Amino acid sequence: MASLPSISPKSLPPLTKPLKPTKTQKPFTQLPLPTTFRRSSAVTSAVSGDDFGIIPAKSSKLAEQIESAVSVLQESEIVGGGAVVDLDKMIDRIINASIVLAAGSFALTKLLTIDHDYWQGWTIYEILRYAPQHNWSAYEEILKTNPVLAKMVISGVVYSIGDWIAQCYEGKPLFEFDRTRMLRSGLAGFALHGSLSHYYYEFCEALFPFQDWWAVPIKVAFDQTIWAGIWNSIYFIVLGLLRLESPVSIFKELKGTFLPMLTAGWKLWPFAHLVTYGVIPIEQRLLWVDCVELIWVTILSTLSNQKSEARLSEESTETTNSSPSEE
């Protein structure tokens, strides 16, 4: 068997000798730096100087690019939030329109179908002619059987519509009203105005049983001092409680608005109550008063909510101004 040739250490090439680059291969030091490495080097050079041999001015361009990217992201978030807000408004508008259309359709159907049991063969003219008369007869029958409930329902509907008119008067679109606010006003009219007014008119007639012409101005004066002050205060307090406001805030606002509300009513009610106490029978008075209430509730609701919103804005301003001083 042949023996392997011996290899001496001197015959091996030195390990420290650099390799010469071939013609098709560039030296390692001439390879281009990756993009990410160049950007990180630019940031590093902006902080620690020219350690990597990159001009620090390029860092400003990078900062501008970052700022532009952040601004684009912020704009996209704003646009996305606006889309969500628009979607919420559209949903509220659809709900409000459905409520209005459903309530209007129900009322119109009940009014026009009062004679549906025996209108077979009737013409449209006959239906429109006799429907108001028969609805009035049905209303009088309800007043005899359950007068308090009938008046509560009428006042609740009137106070809800009055608040809706007030919101439209304040600048809100037709179907973008505040449902909670309208419900509060309607609840105050249903639970309190209808029932209290029923007993008040009976009390007023018992207090002033005179049927002469001079008794009318006395009843109007009593109505526009004692009763107007009582009811305006009740309405204002009830709305404040339904808004979950503190009793201190409610009575503070009531103290500042009591006389303005009372004097504002003197521009409307004395003329209306000349008809109320001089012409309208006692059992029909609340219906006439509720028709005028559409105007008055608009005034009351607008004044009440304006005072509440002004107070909330003042409290938020005070909180904002006091927070820096505490820090």
TrEMBL record:
GO terms for cellular component: cytoplasm; membrane. Keywords: Membrane, Transmembrane, Transmembrane helix. Residues 1-30 are annotated as: Disordered. Residues 1-10, 17-30 have a biased composition (Low complexity). InterPro entries: Mpv17_PMP22. It is found in: Membrane. Transmembrane segments: none annotated. It is a multi-pass membrane protein. Belongs to the peroxisomal membrane protein PXMP2/4 family. This is Peroxisomal membrane protein 2. It comes from Chenopodium quinoa. The lineage of its organism: Eukaryota, Viridiplantae, Streptophyta, Embryophyta, Tracheophyta.
